Amino acid sequence: MDNQYKVLLLGSGGREHALADAISKSNVLESLKVYPGNGGFSEDVLLKADEISITDKSKFIEYIKSSQTNLVVVGPEDPLVNGIADWCEEIGVPCFGPSAYCAQVEGSKHFAKEMMKRAKVPTASFAVFTDHESAWSFAQKEMLPLVVKADGLAAGKGVTVAFEMKDVKRALDEIFLESKFGQSGYKVVLESFLEGEESSLFVITDGERYMCLPAAQDHKRAYDGDIGPNTGGMGAYAPAPIVTEAVLEKVKSRIIEPMLDDFKRSGHPYKGLLYVGLMITKEGEPNVVEFNCRFGDPETQCVLRLLDEDILPIFYASAIGNLPVRNLKLKQGSSAVVVLAAKGYPDSPEKGMVLEIPPNEGNVVVYHAGTKRDNSSLLANGGRILGITSFGKTLKDAIDECYTFLSTIKAPSTFYRKDIGRRAL
Ligand code: AMP
Ligand code: GLY
To answer: Which of 159, 198, 200, 278 should be mutated for ligand 2, with most atoms under 8 A from CB?
Structure first.
């Protein structure tokens, strides 16, 4: 057997609960610690705020050294954009996640668009502006719909798909005049509208080699029928039939390989997870909507259920630049996740509701997101509360099982979409 890994996992969402579940099953795991985690983790796994910091470099390094952590797995984008993988590199500790330079692929829309342009990766045409007046005068000559994107990280709220000029104006006002996104508002990307069907593809890479997980489809709008406000994601399923073998081959040769080559040429090979957000046309032509520098949430919760091998050696191999040249071992079948959200999500979710979740049944696994423990009670503590996942021979089996289980959960003042995966059934 290889090394035994002492792993630190960072993050607090359903994505991290699913990652922890996969890591816990590893044959080469010595110990797992999680920070800050959520109500789904047992107390002994969680680190406390006085033990570690993800914003204070010296406190972070002190913890890594004293705990003898030998693999750091980073869930969310913020610490990556802030350079946590570089801190690990400085002390010679492998980190599954890209450097701050590479994380700009998510941290700056402008960076990502320039890179795609250079690498000739198919994506929407764009223009970049740093003041309201020039952005607005350009926009008025453009066709609608037009997509307005704040340049920097905006917790998923920086994008407006505008179908009317007044919506373009509103978005520009918010960015430049009201500083809604703070620093992100110094720059705006105006982008043409892409038509088609969206899919999320997760690529594990060591900078040189890469492995793809099965493509997933997320449901971003809050309510059934794809209406209501944009959210982080209300449910997902995998594999997404829209990403056929032929589409995947195009994604590899036109998107993944040129991007990894460009990172390499820049002297910053990309390590970790590259999330490719695709828009696939009716004709099966893939375009990039966005890149993220981390796993998607809630897609991860269902995608990892299709993995049929130990994930930890793969994360480690990515981190040290030694990824095997082969495909990942996958289960035959489909998986789904349905998100239980608090009433008021995404704008002002209610909190503090007492949750009663029966034990997992059949193929169902429940991942926690916005939950916390208060003595013996489990309380809602965030917009997306739980992700109910299942796996089945068919997508219908997986989805039906999620919904049957959801009907047994007691969770006042919550809601969930009833149509996850319906389009693929
Ligand atoms: P992003 O944060 O870049 O993923 O944008 C959020 C959502 O806005 C995406 O998931 C798409 O649904 C939509 N979107 C972003 N860019 C475009 C585009 N160029 N054309 C159509 N829809 C877009
Ligand atoms: N579910 C979309 C994302 O993780 O960005």
So the answer is: 200
Report the CATH number that the domain containing residue 136 is assigned in CATH.
3.30.1490.20
Query: Do 9 and 64 share a domain, yes or no?
Result: yes
Q: Total structural domains in the chain?
A: 2
Average pLDDT for 20-43: 97
Q: Which atom of ligand 2 is found nearest the CA of 236?
A: 1
Provide CB contacts within 8 A for 335, sequence distance 6+.
Answer: 237, 238, 302, 303, 305, 306, 389, 390, 391, 392, 398
CATH number of the domain within which 50 lies: 3.40.50.20
Residue 157 sits in which domain range?
Answer: 131-186
413 sits in which H/E element: none
Please say whether the beta carbons of 387 and 303 come within 8 A: no
Q: How confident is the model at residue 128 (pLDDT cuts 50, 70, 90)?
A: very high
Average pLDDT for 49-64: 97
Pocket around ligand 2 at a 6 A CB cut-off? 218, 232-233, 292, 296-297, 299
Tokens of 407: 């009907």
pLDDT tens digits, residue range 379-415?
A: 999 999 999 999 999 999 999 999 999 999 999 999 9
Dist. CA 414–CA 343, nearest whole Å: 5
